[in-house]
Structure formats: structure tokens, C-alpha cells
Amino acid sequence: MITSTTGPQPADFADVRATNLAVVLRFVREHAPCSRADIAASTGLNKATVSSLVADLIDRRLVRETGLTENRVGRPATMLVLDGSPYAAIGVEINVDTVSAVAVDLAGERLLTWRRSFSAGDAVNQGVAAVGAVVRRVVGRMAKEERQVLGLAVAVPGLVDVQGTVRIAPGLGWRDADLGGDLAKALRDPGFPIQVDNDANLAALAEQRFGAHAGASDLVYLTGELGVGAGVILDGRLRKGGRGFSGEIGHVQLDPEGPRCHCGRRGCLEAMAGIAAVLRRDLSPAETQVEIEEVVRLARAGDAGTLATLDSVGRHLGQGVSLLASLLNPEVVILGGYYVPLAPWLLPAVHDELAGRVVAEEAGGCQVVASTLGHDAAALGGAARVLDSVDSGRLPGGLSRIP
Ligand SMILES: [Zn+2]
Known about the structure:
- The chain is α/β, with parallel strands linked by helices.
- The chain has twelve helices and 16 strands.
- The protein has helices at residues 13-31, 36-43, 47-59, 124-144, 179-186, 199-210, 269-273, 275-279, 285-300, 304-328, 339-357, 377-391, and strands spanning 34-35, 63-70, 77-82, 87-94, 98-104, 110-117, 148-156, 159-160, 166-169, 174-177, 194-198, 219-222, 230-234, 237-238, 332-335, 367-370.
- The protein has a five-stranded mixed beta sheet. The chain has a five-stranded mixed beta sheet with strand order 14-13-12-15-16, sandwiched between helices. A three-stranded antiparallel beta sheet has the order 1-3-2.
- The structure holds zinc ion.
- Residues 251, 261, 263, 265, 268, 270 line the site of zinc ion (ZN).
């Protein structure tokens, strides 16, 4: 006998309430200061329901009343804004030789930005212990400020599957690492959710929430760290693919005769348009930073060799961006990491390639810009991921009015 589990199911009352709480919270986030009547008018929820939901959000200290009132016909309406002062969302980014940590409050205001030197060590547990130590200090700082941690999301430069297992992170020497589980143990089950994702994916979330193109529904973030990867947001949602491995554009082959890539193949985008192609050799991250500053100095001074290298790298980068533009038709492709300081010299060649390679007029409306979020974009994106969870209904406790 064949049974169907996809037919209509009776709605779960608690689920409906959680969904509605999230709807009201998102409305206040986007439209504050606003009144209960504004919420009812825009969401279609009736006024009594809105009053009850707002009371619950106030109990949870996610929303508060301001002293402001709005003058309307009839009695004045009390205005609402986000509260969230007792909460923190934490994002951490693991890089080859640094760990960055960012904490924000519910409204996205920055509470803390740290960067610490880091060594992945010879075994995963050494690296995890080092990351765990940084996270413990951040959590300690938030506890001192009497903030409850809503969650932690960790960005890793590598392939992370949909379960959050780090399948392969070449720069860290990690393979099949249950980073989230190991961190939970290192933090002695901290009582908040821990998520793990690819660095490009989380940086894309940071751009969607905090960047110069915040709110764009179709956006691609391209990392320009030691590797090149894409974080893809389509129709407003991060798209990770079936197993979580989407966005690996760094290993799309541009030239079979091209230079050898870290992956063992030849002529990958990463080998032709990554930072090693700008510097013409592999360097440690600390050396890379110094060398990039020197490249910028030479480019400003009009050094012909440097300008030719940046033009060539920009053309190859433009080939990669054209692939993204043709395949995904994003509103914007945002260049991150080391591409940011080099953008004035890379972008003209990128735009040329786009114009010549994308069939749609004006590259389908695709803009290419440098990120304004800096090297901590993926850490900030970790915090954004935690806020996304809250906005979609995973609310912290409080005095629930449901028995
Ligand atoms: Zn490759």
C-alpha cells in the first residue's frame, strides 16, 4: 500500500505562533519605528493577534516601546523599535593564519571585532582547540555584558557539506572534520546553536544584510583570499546546492595550458586570476598583505609591468565573472578580500570582458563592485547567519504566553 506523507497536515498551533512572531519581528526590523496598527495593516494579522505577538516579543526583550507616539485620528499610537539589548550573535572566520571574531546585537550593531593569529596545527583537534579558545573569550565578554548568545556560525575556507561537516579545507589541512560538534565539546555544550559554513557563503550573507548592496535578492560574492570561491544568493536565499558545494568557480578551467593550480589541475580561474597570479608566486598570508600593498604602490606610480599584470588578471577574473553573469544573472557581483585594494585596476578589464562575453544587453544588468566590508566579511556573515535564524523564527526564550 502506498501512503502519502505530503498531504495537508493539521497546522501546529505553536508553529503558527512562532511563524507569526517572526513575521512581526522582521516587520519591526525593517520598518521601525512603527505602531501595532502599522503591523496589522501590513501583515494582514488582526489587531488582537498583533497585540499578543508584540507583548510576547516585548517579554523576550526583542522589541521595545519607545516614548514616541504617532499622531493619528483617534488616540495616539505607541511606537515600537527593535530591542535585543540582552543578546549577541557571534560570527567567526577561520583563515590560514588568523581567526577573526565578530559579535553584533539583534539590530546588527557591532559589539566586538577581534583578529587573532592562528595555527591550524598538525591535527584537527589542535586547530579546533585554538578556535575554541577564541570563542570562549568572546562568549565570556558577552556574558560580562550580560548578553545571551543567540548562536555562533563559523566560516571555513573549504568545502562544507549541508550537515556542516568540513569535507576538505586544503589551507588548514582538514578533512572530514565535524567542526561544529568538536567546538560544542570544546565549549562544554554552550546551550546555543553552532553552525559551520563555507567562507564565501557567509560573506555573501554579510553583503546581503550589511553591505553596500544590502537587500539585493540576486547577489554573488567572490572571495579574493588565497583561494577564489563564490557565495551565491538567488531570489533572496543562499543557494548551496544539493550537498552544499556550490560556488567552486575557482577551479573552473580557463586554459588547459595555463599555470598549475593548487588542486593539481592546470589553468583554473584561481591560478589565472587569484592572488598568486597577481604576485606570480605563493606567499604566506602575512607576506601577501605586504606584497599587495607594494603592488598598489607600483600601480599608483604607473609602473608598466604592474599595470600589465593587473590588466591580465582582471581579464581572467572577467571571464569568471562573465560565467557567473551568464549562468545566474545576478544584480551585482561583489569582489572581496585582496581584490578590494586592487579593484581600481582590475575592474576596467573585468567590465570589458563582461561586455564582450555576456549575450544579454549590459551584461544582464550585472554590476561588479568591490566589497566595503573588509577582510572580516565572512565573520560578519556568521553573525548575519545567526540573525537570519532569529528572523526566520528561531527566537530566544523569554516569558512565552503559550502554556
Ligand atoms: Zn584548481
